[in-house]
């Protein structure tokens, strides 16, 4: 299975360096994709319409984001995967990282946000966030920082986190009304 993962990762990363514009887009998506998603989520706080539901979803997205990254820390207690550039699979377009490769925190964060919106039936925004999350995932492989399985694992972790938050953070509860009533 590693051979397939490495081959697909190498195939995606092998395009890097052949087109300056695509390289620039992928580098920027990799670096600022998640912070832009967080800003896009935060900007929805004052959105018109069903403000109570929107704010509930925003809080759920934030909790999913945090839970997903916490789950990644648990995974890292057991899995210490070498980065693909250290294994000679990819060439790196960014600064190297000292963190283990699996799972991708960027993919986890982006997918936690997208999944939270989709699970809470804010489909239009959810699909935009999903498209952005997919771009972040591809960019992380393209720039050489992750294997394909790293970003897929991150997407799974983010989705599981969003599902857990959906199950336990209920809309309309006293805590929800208190949090969403702020500002």
UniProtKB/TrEMBL annotation:
Q: In its keyword annotation, does this UniProt entry include Transmembrane helix?
A: yes
What keyword terms does UniProt attach to this protein?
A: Membrane, Transmembrane, Transmembrane helix
Phosphatidic acid phosphatase type 2/haloperoxidase domain: from which residue to which, for each copy?
Answer: 56-166
Q: What are the TM regions of this chain, as residue ranges?
A: 25-46, 58-80, 126-145, 151-169
| Keyword Zinc-finger carried by entry | no
SUPFAM superfamilies annotated for this entry? Answer: Acid phosphatase/Vanadium-dependent haloperoxidase
Q: Which Gene3D superfamilies match?
A: Phosphatidic acid phosphatase type 2/haloperoxidase
The highest taxon in the source lineage is Bacteria
Q: Which PANTHER family match?
A: AT30094P, SPHINGOSINE-1-PHOSPHATE PHOSPHOHYDROLASE
Q: What is this protein called?
A: Phosphoesterase
């Amino acid at each position: 299975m590693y051979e397939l993962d490495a081959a697909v990762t190498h195939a995606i990363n092998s395009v890097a360096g052949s087109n300056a514009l695509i390289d620039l887009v992928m580098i920027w998506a990799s670096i600022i994709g998640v912070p832009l998603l967080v800003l896009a989520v935060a900007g929805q706080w004052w959105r018109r319409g069903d403000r109570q539901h929107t704010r509930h979803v925003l809080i759920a997205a934030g909790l999913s984001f945090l839970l997903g990254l916490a789950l990644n820390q648990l995974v890292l207690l057991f899995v210490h995967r070498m980065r693909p550039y250290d294994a000679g699979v990819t060439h790196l377009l960014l600064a190297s990282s000292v963190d283990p490769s699996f799972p991708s925190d960027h993919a986890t964060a982006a997918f936690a946000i997208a999944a939270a919106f989709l699970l809470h039936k804010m489909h239009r925004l959810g699909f935009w966030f999903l498209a952005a999350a997919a771009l972040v995932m591809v960019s992380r492989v393209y720039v050489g920082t992750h294997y394909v399985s790293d970003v897929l694992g991150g997407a799974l972790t983010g989705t599981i986190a969003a599902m857990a938050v959906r199950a336990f953070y209920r809309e309309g509860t006293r805590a929800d009304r208190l949090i969403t009533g702020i500002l």
